[in-house]
Amino acid sequence: MESLTSAGAERAASTDQPWPHVVLLASPGAGHLVPLTELARRLVEHHGFGATFVTFTDQDLISSSEALSGVPASVATAALPSIPLHDLPAATPMETVLFELVRRSLPHLRTLLHSTAHLAALVPDFFCSAALPLAGELGVLPYVFVPSNLTALALMRRTVELYNGVPPGEHRDLPDPLELPGGVLLRRADLPRAFRSSNEPVYAHHLEEGRCYRHADGVLVNTFYEMEPTTVEEFRQVAGEGAWPLVFPVGPFVRSSSNETGDSACLEWLDRQPTGSVVYVSFESGGSLSVKQMAELTAGLEACGYRFLWVVRMPSMDGQEDEEEHGRCKNGNPLAWLPEGFLERTRDKDLAVAAWAPQVRMLSHPATEAFVSHCGWNSTMESVSVGGMIPGGSKA
User: Model's pTM, two decimal places?
Assistant: First the structure.
């Protein structure tokens, strides 16, 4: 990232020079928004840039109000106008909807970029790489930001390489098993759904996204060397061969606990618990449980005998609810899905809260000893940042 940060350093050396400006474009979802807001903050506060954090008005695709509340005052914000998507079929996969939203928003983004003074770089996140050609139009640096881990980027790269020299229209599936850096083998059934079959439309979308990455000056990834050393070294090698852009592990990006809003009742409850006595349970927005899984988890938590603090989210329904369940679903209260009597039986020793809690503060609290998670990357980075708590495990 030397060419990007050097522009800010040069500005900092001379107060007569204007602030070089970076525009960062985030796709909806807390998992994308939170780390990108932290990147924007660091560019402003540590590298002498101005920054504008751009989002989509259609944020109802994935609830992200809590994530957006954390944008620091030092970073300017802008929301692109709402884009009609009603012509898309009802069963359109979420990834396809996101890609189409980005594509249809490009004219509005172009207008915003042309109006941004001293623009130095455009940094879309990994779902918004269709915006990269706009950087070429304006003669500014194009970078891609990956809020997930470097291994996910390695999967994307393998998919792109699979199609080198392949005629248009030909489909190729990834090998089964697929070998990733470090000799890790993944069966096709264990890959993310979008990469399991080349016949799926979402597969083609991800392939096109990965091809766009090749036009970037670099890829900024929310990880750090010690977390994925073998993968970092492999990307350095392929970049040296000119087969892929330079990759910069610039994480971990974790929101400061002081910037978290949330229910103070959770912290007050933790304050009353003995040190190292609480199991914190949260699956974030990307880890929805089915109704059956939720029932199994309640049975396990109640039987384990340990204090727990559970952030309960709405279960995934997949169209299987009956009329009574549909009524509870419309009510929007995840606690209504817990087994009858569960809250009453556990209220003296445990706590269940609906939907959201200030996770960084929960994890760093001395009463919290273990963390049960779906192991999303944000949770993993937050766990490492508070001193070695591993998702699904306990403090090291």
Answer: 0.86
